[in-house]
């Protein structure tokens, strides 16, 4: 096995495989979290100045590690199962523009940029926070989240469009009503939009509040309506998660039925089902339950059309 | 093809057809959004006065375009599939009172009204915001939204009635308790209703807050109860969306089963299913998944333990 | 038909029957709403004093009508289908302690009480608001609402218990932390509970806010946790509505299958299904859809065990 | 029956069994609630000092009872069905480290600790509040709650991770934007995190509000996004409850089908179903409904169009 292949296995193979791979993954996760904590602590002026040197050293150390990690990932990406190893440069360039690689690049780029451009310290801190996104490498649960989000974009889009129309309309109305009474806070429609968003998301800071009787009357309607409309996208998304889960369970159920067609689940069938369950982000418990349920449902007798005898589609039918 | 027919195809045919139709649609969408942005910017006093002439010119230009669009739509509406072309005037009048045509009319009417009546500039702005509603022409996702809303009006109505009763009751109670301590903010039941709505929608500006011990005690109950009740309509609506989706999937499933009754989905069957899926606002992916699932369930083969022959558990297996 | 029977039909029969029944029902609904509006308007001091006489006259008029209605309902209650007409006094007493009769009684009792006891005007207003509850007589949609609520009391109870524990725990913790820094607002655990409820329901007036660093840190956890926990009961209730609806649809589906067992839905079967659908608060559309779906699913072939020939369970099988 | 066995039955048997067991359970529940109320009342300085002696006496009394209860529970735990009675010390030690026993221990430990260490009175009160957790002994509904929570930890974890990332990112951005304008409230990223959490949970105290135009613009986006993301975990959890319920109903349905395979539910089958329903936290009503539905689906009879004989579409119909 070449060094490149070994590095690939070390870096990219799933966390649950070798010990070295696990250790490296854990180390990088800890380093990312430590970086985020360091940025948060450093932003506290007194604390940040006192340990300025330490923070700088830790930042340089992190950037060095992340840079090595980034370069290694670019180097070994040609070893990936689907990659075209015969055109290494093209493959690597394509990898460099993938989402995961860009996140890794953004985690180190601002540091090197400071040698050429003078970035305000506070904005630099904000950019260093992007290192947090590197964690998505290790978070498998996000897949289904993103999958549902992409699938439901049109429906969610319609809800967001409705929210937008409501915000703009509410702001225009309240601007027209309250402008005279409070010219300093309802001075223009954009100012009124601040009120509209703060109100309809139910944040309600209280820095901008209608004072006229008519303004309060209309605001009450906007609140009652707004609460419902703004809460809809989240509620719908949650419902779609339920739907997605059900769809995946149906998929697994179909395969379980397939495996049960000979009356029982063999070892190799079970391995396939386990793999599919993992792929679909379903738990081992769900699979167990499903097999039990389907076996019972299948415990039905039918007549063989060839010999006209009864067949019991039970768990042990194949062994009879 | 007559000019009227050509204009109809240009204006009313679905966005995804001809290039000219697409371009015109995109142009009108951009113009609507630009109008809304213009109204928002113009409301900023200093900015609005500086570019007053530009804003006015853009408004006149938009009104001209929208007027031409409106007149063209009224002119060509007799070409619509279900329209009665033999009675053009009656057909056009009916179209002019449809929801879509009224929205188009409201987008231009205020401008012409200003020649006759003196409308306050702020209210005029509010009316120009109605142009935003023209976007509903191009937003297909809203259909299911409105469909569910209309279907569930009775249930939603009961929830809104409960909210209303709760608001009025809470306001009366808090008015009775807090009137003495804070006569200026809990001076009458309508004032207390402002508190009740601000509290039960969880906006909580903090401009009106109970100060007596008993008032705070009752307010805590109202909050805990109110949060649940006010959030119900949105949550129920979201649940109904899920239900509607499931119903539609069941409909599609039934047709898929029908198409699969001969063991496979033919090309013409597939075209029908595609059309039905589009009609039901279901994605191509959902259909694909459904066909796969149903095929597996129906296409299972087992071995008869008596005669050792294969049996295909399909729809007509019993008839073989 | 006796006068008592006629009065019963006039008062208690469903709104959708006779014209006189409809008119009386509408009149009482209008009177209830007018009463609520009158109480709200009268609470405005200046307005209330100016028209004091008118408001008083309207109140007396309403009480007279509601008293006549109440007495009539008590008089005719023995005509109800399930009532025991042989023991009129016992039947009437039992009716008088039913929920609907108590609401009617509470709507008029405070007025008569004022002749004997001196009730503060503000509390009297609050009591007159109870007339609003008389509307539940006419609101059919609330049935399913109450039915689900009663069914899910244990689950909802567990959620409310969790909320209570969280409120008491959060209040104790914040009292311990913030007591020293803000003795006037975090002076005791009950005071801290006001903060806890205002925060966890996300109302957030801002009248009580932690100021110490540790207090803010703990408050952040309480907020993030509290938002989830407090929103749970409403979300769960909404989910149960979905479940209830599904259960009812399953019930209807079973009956549809039963009706379809001979291949088609006869007129009398259809009438039964319509009645069941109405009883289950399901729409005509849902029923239509269900019949269509089930017919397709049943379009399967099975073998008759007697003559071994294939039977197609289609819509027209009975006519073949 | 030995004394230890009797004590076990008195303490640990289900509430619904013997009268003595019920009375003891009720007494302990009342004592726990009384303790919590006492701690709340005592925290009110004037009130607490006036009745200081009474509160102290009640506390000592409660601790004595709870200590006896704790020791008794440890003593009798070897009588539990699954416990190893041959190794009493090991069994008791294992019990002492179980969740329920630790909660019982925490309810009394602080009192005894005060003899050795000097704990601040306010923190002591907080610790006494832990007695509230003893109620979990008697609250059966929480089981399903915890079961769902544990099952869905990965999904909920992904949602919480997203919330965390959003909070940290929003805080960094707002710190960068608002630091100059409001150095006292946006002085460091931790301070900005207070704003981010208060805003994204929609609590919105209003103690920290962006004032710059750009800050308000970004805050509007954060609010609209945050409302959706923060509400997701609760909505998802509620959806999972629905899913869990459905899964359990499917499980019960499978057993009902099994019981119905001979055409009817026998008494012993019914007892098994009742037990399973209770075990799955499903109501008697649900079971009743399920049996009715499944009987209808399976018990349908049709007429064979060829030989005009009745066919019962039951599980073994094909085998008849």
UniProtKB/TrEMBL annotation, chains A, B, C, D:
It holds the Pfam family Ion_trans. One of its GO terms (cellular component) is voltage-gated potassium channel complex. InterPro entries: Ion_trans_dom (IPR005821), TerB-like (IPR029024), VG_K_chnl (IPR028325), Volt_channel_dom_sf (IPR027359). The chain crosses the membrane at residues 21-41, 53-72, 93-119, 156-177, 184-205, 217-239. GO terms for molecular function: voltage-gated potassium channel activity. The keyword Ribonucleoprotein does not apply. Keywords: Coiled coil, Ion channel, Ion transport, Membrane, Potassium, Potassium channel, Potassium transport, Transmembrane, Transmembrane helix, Transport, Voltage-gated channel. Residues 242-293 form a coiled coil. The keyword Transport applies. It comes from the Bacteria. GO terms for biological process: action potential. It is a multi-pass membrane protein. Residues 23-243 form the Ion transport domain. It is found in: Membrane. Its main location: membrane. This is Potassium voltage gated channel, Shab-related subfamily, member 2. It comes from Planctobacterium marinum.
């Amino acid at each position: 096995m070449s060094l490149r292949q070994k590095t690939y296995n070390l870096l990219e193979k799933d966390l649950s495989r070798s010990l070295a791979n696990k250790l490296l993954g854990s180390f990088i996760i800890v380093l990312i979290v430590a970086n985020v904590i360091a940025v948060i602590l450093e932003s506290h002026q007194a604390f940040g100045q006192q340990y300025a040197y330490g923070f700088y050293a830790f930042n340089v150390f992190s950037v060095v590690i992340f840079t090595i990690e980034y370069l290694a990932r670019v180097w070994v990406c040609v070893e990936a199962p689907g990659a075209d190893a015969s055109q290494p440069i093209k493959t690597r360039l394509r990898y460099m523009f993938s989402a995961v690689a860009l996140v890794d690049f953004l985690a180190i780029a601002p540091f090197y940029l400071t040698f050429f451009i003078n970035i305000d310290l506070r904005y630099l801190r904000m950019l260093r926070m992007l290192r947090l996104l590197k964690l998505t490498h290790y978070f498998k649960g996000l897949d289904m989240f993103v999958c549902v989000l992409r699938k439901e974009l049109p429906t969610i889009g319609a809800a967001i469009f409705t929210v937008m129309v409501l915000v703009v309309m509410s702001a225009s109305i309240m601007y027209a009503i309250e402008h005279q009474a409070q010219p300093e806070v309802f001075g223009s429609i954009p100012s009124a939009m601040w009120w509209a968003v703060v109100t309809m998301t139910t944040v309600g800071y209280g820095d901008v509040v209608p004072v006229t009787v008519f303004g309060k009357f209309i605001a009450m309607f906007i609140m009652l309506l707004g609460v419902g409309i703004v809460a809809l996208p989240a509620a719908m998304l949650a419902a779609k998660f339920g739907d997605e889960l059900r769809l995946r369970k149906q998929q697994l159920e179909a395969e379980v039925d397939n495996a049960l067609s000979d009356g029982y689940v063999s070892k190799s069938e079970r391995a396939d089902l386990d793999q599919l369950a993992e792929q679909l982000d379903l738990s081992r418990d769900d699979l167990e339950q499903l097999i039990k349920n389907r076996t019972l449902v299948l415990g039905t007798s039918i007549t063989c059309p060839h010999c006209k005898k009864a067949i019991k589609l039970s768990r042990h039918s194949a062994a009879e």
